[in-house]
Queue: 2 jobs
Job 1
Amino acid sequence: MNRHETGSRTEVGDVAADGRSPACARLQGLDVLQVEGLAHRVDGRQLFADVSFRLGLGMFASLLGPSGCGKTTLLRLIAGLEPLQQGRISLGGQPVADAESGVFLPPEARRVGMVFQDFALFPHLTVRQNILFGLRGRSGRDCRARLAWVEEMLERFGLAHRADAWPANLSGGEQQRVALLRALAPQPALLLLDEPFSSLDVARRLEMREEMLEIIRMSGTTALMVTHDAQEALFMSDLVMIMGHGGIVQAGTPTEVYEQPVDPFVMSLFGHMNVFAGRVDAEGRLPTPIGALPVPPSLQPGQRAEAHVRASAFLPVDASPEEGQGALVETAAMATAALAQGVPPGVFPWQVRGRVLSAHFMGGSSHLHVAPEEAPDQVLHMQAPGRFLPRSGATCSFWLRRNGVFIFPAGD
Amino acid sequence: MAAASAPAGRGGGLRLLRIGALVAAGLVVLPLLAVVVMAASFSDALPHLWRTVMPQLALNTLLLMAGVGISVIMLGCGAAWLVVRYRFPGHGIMQWALALPLAVPGYLVAFIYTDLLEYAGPVQKALRELFGWQGPRDYYFPEIRSLPGAVMVLSLTLYPYVYLLARVAFMAQSASLLEAARLLGRKPWPAFFAVALPVAWPAVAAGTALALMEVLNDFGVVDFFAVPTFTAGIFDVWLNMNDAAGAAQLALVLLVFTLLLILLERMARRRRRFDTAGPRAAGRGWRLRGWKAALALAACLLPVVLGFVLPVAVLLMHAARFWQESLQQGLMEQLFNTLLLASVVSLTAALLALVLAFAARLDGSATVRGAVRLAGIGYAMPGAMLAVGLLMALAWADGLINDAARAWLGMAPGLLLSGTMFALAHGHVSRFLALALGSIESGLARISPSMEAAARTLGARPAEVLRRVHLPMLRGSVLTALLIVFVDSVKELPMTLLLRPFGFSTLATQTYQFASDEMFEEAALGALFIVMAGIIPLILLVRAMNAPSSQSETARF
């Protein structure tokens, strides 16, 4: 956190405490995981510092951030796979690692399960032997209950006929299910997931997300996932913690972090952006090629500021350009609304006009490069819903959604 | 290797290559075949042999194999696990130092330890002086010249086979495998036994099989320690009893043992080959501090000191005192003999290996591939067995030649093949061809068919492709092949003892002779040459270990 001082670092615990996030507030007081003041250096470089958060029972949380921000290291510290350098980690109220007092429970004593990026299935054991690996040493009713659970899960997730197969003969999705069941079989207090979907192909990912979530929800296990995929984090989590700049930058529910990003870094994780820099004018607006944007009251006239505008903030006014009627109902409805009321709801009361440089079809949406009339040498990135493919050189008009525009102060 | 790449030569050249490959394979297989034929032709098994000698030989051989097998697995896996998984002071040096004992032939270690530990040796002498003991009845001291002694000596020199292969296997294991085991409730050592060791088992089995083949091959240690095994039995029956039939039958039993060993190793490996390299293969080691670090270092140092440092120090000491005696005993001549033999053998082996490898690549028919595989089995065969077979085959051939010469020329030329340098070189080539073949095949595998295709589309004719692409790219592999065959030929003892022409001594046979005559000190300088030669391939190995792609290091060691 250097340039943008607006987003004073949010204490994640606070999120749960002040009840802004319902899922967190509900479970307040039942902290499964408590992380306090963690700091870590690698080869003299500060990876992160002053990381604190709590996870309530049954919560699914994710650590989202670019690669190299230390999120996997944080996960490994919680698991006990890395020596703790500074801070304290408690599981179920009991400290498992405390740099000050020197407490350090080895991983096997922490009751933490983990799904590894490469799944780490034992190649010399069958699927069933893999899943039962963590149950050794148990006996009696508890053990029988777990064995029954394992068989039920194998059945439920289509692995029953593969129970005696070798891991090498499984598909990626099957391997992932086995890895998850293996981690859950000993009933860990906390489940850690390290980029669990990164070794699956894109088509399988969406399917596996839902299935994994179902298994974890059914088991009622508290989970913490590390990912660099923003969609994944939003889709799966009750709580998203965004890591960068050597710490946790923002934490909140998926809608909070998406709709109220505390700084440009957080915004940048959620897709394409247009950035315009300038000075706040006397009327409290920031002049840009796409219009004079109103700034929050915290910004004084004359102060330098940056407008960050999501590509998805632009709505075509004419949903069926030369192309013919191509846009989805959504945009058509918008256009109808515009005709009826003059200005559709939730947009600024002016239109951005520009010359289309190129238009690319992406299936569910269309990506446009547009040179605004106000500044023809600049390029706007726009993402229009559905099929919207005007010819290159055509002039189009766009509404600008208010909730896709964010103004942050900029350094001088 | 790709079965059939585009035929690069004209029909005639290819046919020549194919014939060459079959001849090369025939040379290797000839002694084996002879053993089988001879043993079978003495159809009435020699009952006295079976009753008197065989049980003792079998028992000794089995006990020796069991003892060495267990010891090398423990030493090799333990050391490999320590250097791969943990970090402690001296870790970097230990990684390669642990391979050093491979440079010292077992028979040298046996001579040196006998020298040190026998009644008149410095250790017992010092103990007597220290405690004031008068004679052997005043105290107990373990007898080094015994079965346990042989197990110790052979284990100390052979554990690096397991160490090197296990080390590579452990390093290839994804770190998350072990972490997963920890998170599922296993402490570090249980996690090792539950996951790391079983996953590395195919490599461990391969290393152990190599070590046990050396045990079957060994003559120096078991002879010197008076622990008669099959190899020692062959010597006894052949040289002392002059019993060719008995020797052939013993050789056949030895062959069966060897084949069983190969079969066992295949079975251990038949379950899936694990490909476990993950995104963080091996990962960083766990740092040890304090007494744990000291213990780890001590555990690694012990086999290195006992198997390399101490023997070499003793040799240096003796050599410094007795070098003049060594020179007077014809050291220069033995050195010359050794170098001559090793040069002839390594050049021949490399040439035959080139023929075989190219034949397999260009022809790729089942016949040629079978020939190549046959040519590779010599290394698994005990030297004494090969020697017996070879002598019989060559004696038979000499007989034919002499009969023919007498019939046509009226005079007999005498022994042309058996009992000459030819027999000796032939024996060495049969045994060491596999080494050269392995090196050259792996080098050839690096030249992809598309490289040949690229050269051809750029306008090079087949012969030109060979000259401008294959040979330059193979230079390193051929050099390696020459080197490792050369070194193994220098170290070789049992076969040389049986096959050498009368009055012909190498460094190895001279050292053995002197040690038998209790004049080992005077052969120390020659022994030192053998060790120095043995260090050369280890340097290659260490360089391969440090290279980013460590494919080649598994090829031979």
Job 2
Amino acid sequence: MTKADVEVKTTHPKEESETGRYRIPAADVYETADAYVLLLDLPGVEKEGISLTLEKGEMRVKAVVGEDPGIRGRRLFSETGPATFARSFTLGEGIDTHSVDAQYDKGVLTVKLYKHEGMKPREISIN
Amino acid sequence: MMMRVNRFPVVHPMWESVLDFDADLDRVMREFGWPMLTSRATRGPLMNLVESEKESILEMELPGVSKEDLRISLEKDVLTITGERKAQGIPEDAKWIRSESVSGKFQRSISLPHPVDPKAIAAELKNGILRVVLPKGEEMRPREIAIR
């Protein structure tokens, strides 16, 4: 294959946060024989706070960090930035967008994007 | 191993825009595919620390870290968080296309703004966030003094 079927876009996601500010989560992608596996660091969000949208060869991920428990006081360190994560990915034609698995564990979202049957490597038996 | 002790107070409201810039810079570096240049890689895990009347609450981002690989210790008023994010294991026939997350060992020490009762510290790791509640020692709480 000449071109990766999961391309990480560098343009801004279409869906942004209400305040217009968001963070781009770190992404890891690996390819297996039958799928592409995408791992996104989304610390501090609940499973329900994650939206995963597939539309016209694009996958958009948006996640909102859980409610601030309302800690009042002096902020001595404040490093984590905006409370919304957003990033989009371009999917090639080799991806079967009807079969996608996603799970969230320990602050990491794992999305498994299966390849179309025709894109999987096949062993040809010799008669 | 990386060792860094952060002295408070680091964030005066005046500097918050600088931190925002820091986060923006991280984003730009990541967009250009240079995650190794982000501050997360050099400084250790990102955190927030808020001091209120009765306690300080620390929240540190540790996605992909298991409870078993995390250690918290307190010596005098220096809190140290040590741990490891195990590298993602992939099947033998798989290949990496992109790798931005930071894995491996980390350590971060924070000089707390007040003495803490070590027995009263509570820590929880949930959804990739470590939350440590550090109650102030009795003598540090503001008290109202009755006038006779």
